[in-house]
């Protein structure tokens, strides 16, 4: 593998990226050509954990400004309410679609990958336009966006480069899969984006593909993030589908303990926002069914002793 | 998203970073891990801190047994574990004497500063466990009774226990 590459391939890559970007804009406009259904969008919002990063603890819903500490600096989530000055009220549907799925803003800049647009890239057109319709029903919050405090040289260029290197590949369908494991996989990967916390990241902050959903000891806010794979000792292999649904709906574990921290916020919803607990039960069931099919990865995150004993008991 | 379209220079950079990460990991491996209260019953000091931890471990095991009995359609098997939970919850609030705070413990200071509320929640939970035992005996709705008990567990954990921390 030679590290030296000529200018020609690089130019080609840039050209291809440019053409792709143009095609994608067209694609986003087409995706939102018909108006969405805010009622259905509320379910999408709930399945996305109430877009929890965008709601401060004390509310209002979607007002942004939540501090997200990362190894690359401190980032502040943006205002996604329909406020015309500070939020997305003056944006077109296509612009919002582009921000969510491609991480691109209307001034041509690319979002910091703290916003997992690379995962939402696979969100189906129908869910996307319903979600946008729902966002437009939120009460406008006049809260100014706070600039990120980035510990990177040339952040704008860095974010663009990151997208070029690590994003892409997810192909958004026109319609979301209707049911079964296919729907569960879709919801996990492109709506609930479980991997955003449950898949460990490499030094570039990109998800480690071979550790898909295997959990991490260094999650957001320094939290433990459990292994969701079907490994019986270190994952949730001993849980059945109803156990997983109880967790997603109520935050209830099989030993009647409850999840706390970020996951509890995503389930309960922050400041009255609908969270996973308010998502359609059938959808939570498809998520559970899909998680049961995720290949086991033996990765100790926590409670190793207990899990090991549990596996032995059966 | 799983195929790897990464161009060559980035691969080289990632490799370099991996080597650096490995070196860091090797360095950190010598550092003792942060002691976590959970699942480290043996490391907790003898006395109320360890006792209350072990008591709750027992409650968790009983709760799992209730879940299993419910799923298996054998409500009778849930009676004893529910009674055990009730007994444990009667003892539980007595295991937080003044001075039993510890960095190894996940108990919030509110346990002591708002002892009244803490005790009330424990008493409520005990009542819910007894109701669950009754439901198990009389063929009542186990799922509903379990849900009611869980709500109590959660209410107390949310206010009086810190979330499990990573590193």
Q: Would you mind describing this structure in some detail?
A:
The complex is a heterodimer of chains A (314) and B (167). Chain A is mostly helical. Chain A is built from twelve helices and three strands. Chain A has helices at 7-31, 38-47, 93-102, 117-120, 125-135, 155-166, 180-191, 195-198, 241-250, 262-268, 281-291, 304-313, and strands at residues 67-70, 73-76, 149-150. A three-stranded antiparallel β-sheet of chain A has the order 1-2-3, with no helix packed on it. The longest helix of chain A is centred in the first third of the chain and has 25 residues, at 7-31. Chain A is globular, with a radius of gyration of 20 Å. In chain A, 47% of the residues are buried. Chain B has 167 residues and is mainly α. Chain B is elongated, with a radius of gyration of 22 Å. At the A-B interface, helix 9 and helix 12 of A face helix 1, helix 2 and helix 6 of B.
Layout of secondary structure:
The complex is a heterodimer of chains A (314) and B (167).
Chain A lengths: L6 H25 L6 H10 L19 E4 L2 E4 L16 H10 L14 H4 L4 H11 L13 E2 L4 H12 L13 H12 L3 H4 L42 H10 L11 H7 L12 H11 L12 H10 L1
Antiparallel strand pairs in A: 1-2, 2-3
Helix pairs in contact in A: 1-3, 2-5, 7-11, 9-11
Chain B lengths: L7 H22 L18 H25 L3 H16 L18 H4 L1 H24 L3 H19 L7
Helix pairs in contact in B: 2-3, 3-5, 5-6
